[in-house]
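We modelled the chain as a single entity of 194 amino acids. Its sequence is:
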Amino acid sequence: MIYTAKVSEHIHWVGVNDRSTTFFERVWPLDNGMAYNSYVIVDEKCVLVDTVHEANTLELIGRLERVLEGRSLDYIIINHMEPDHSGALPMIASRFPGVKLIGNKLTKRMVDEYYPGAAEFMEVADGDELDLGHHKLKFVPMCSGPSARSTARYSMTSSMPRPTRMRCAATTRASSGSTASSRSGRWPSSMACR
């Protein structure tokens, strides 16, 4: 069975639970593997936010096809170019002809080097917006860590009515080792999440 999670009316988690990875960044042990968190926003235009490690590409494609139900994928937002977020780009681009990759100037250079000719690239800068129909994504700069590979995060505005209740949960581990969590619905959170 292909598992996806509906986060809200238009947003679905289509990521992959990788139980074979035993170390994060080859340093920190993982008892239960890790999750590669990819999301698809289904609107007049459909956008995938991040892909997964290359080894998990077929699983991601199956999840995308299930959620898209025959629709095309219009965009892939690349938050940064680490292999666990971008490894599936070439196969996803091949499976969904016409998809456009979205990222910043640095991401464009890296895509050109790692995956030349994979798909058309749309460069975004701080404040640029992407209109999906009922939702608009606004790109803002972001750095996920010490690497300069980050591209863009987005804030989403919608012409749709807001849900009365969030249907997601997040758990983060502070450097002190304590766990902080916010739960108000369902979420695949049994592993380390990225």
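As a brief sanity check on the tokenised model: Residues 118 and 158 are 30 Å apart (CA to CA). The longest strand covers residues 135-141.
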